[in-house]
Amino acid sequence: QVQLVESGGGLVQAGGSLRLSCVVSGRTVSRYAMGWFRQAPGKEREFVAAIEWSGGPTYYADFVKGRFTVSKDNAKYTMFLQMNSLKPEDTAVYYCAQARTRYSEISYSRTAYDYWGQGTQVTVSS
Predict the structure, then answer these.
(1) Cβ proximity of 68 and 60 under 8 Å
(2) What are the mean pLDDT values of the chain's consecutive 10-residue runs (126 residues total)?
C-alpha cells in the first residue's frame, strides 16, 4: 500500500520560510515524478511544483518561481518543498503527490498523479 505523509507546515509571518517534507512508503521515489499542490479555502486545488523521477528537471507555477524549491532524497524516500519569502496568499493546505507510472514526464496536471498525501496546513500572517 502506497502512502504519502506530509509534514512541516505551520504558522509563519510574511517573508518567512518553511520546509515541507513528504515521506513515501510502499513505493520508491526514484522512479516516479512527484509534485506539490495546494488548496486554499473556497478555491480549486492548484499546482505548485514538480520534480522529475530522475531528480533533474523541475517545474514551478509562476507564482512561486524564485521563492520555492522542490527536491528529493531517494535514499530517504522523501520529497521536499523549501518555501522562502512567503506571502499571505500562500496560505493553503499543501499536498504532495506521486505519478501513476514509472519514468513519466513531470506534469502540472492533477490527473497525472495517482497517490496523494493528507495535506499539511501552511498559514502566512501579514
Answers:
(1) yes
(2) 96 98 94 97 96 93 96 95 98 96 91 96 97
Report whether 17 contacts 84 (CB < 8 A). yes
d(CA 76, CA 71): 12
pLDDT digits (tens, 9 = 90+) for 34-67: 999 999 999 999 999 999 999 889 999 999 999 9
CA–CA separation, 49 vs 59, rounded Å? 6
Largest Cα–Cα separation, the chain: 41
Q: How many residues does the chain have?
A: 126
110 φψ region: left (φ > 0), alpha (ψ -120 to 50), beta (else): alpha
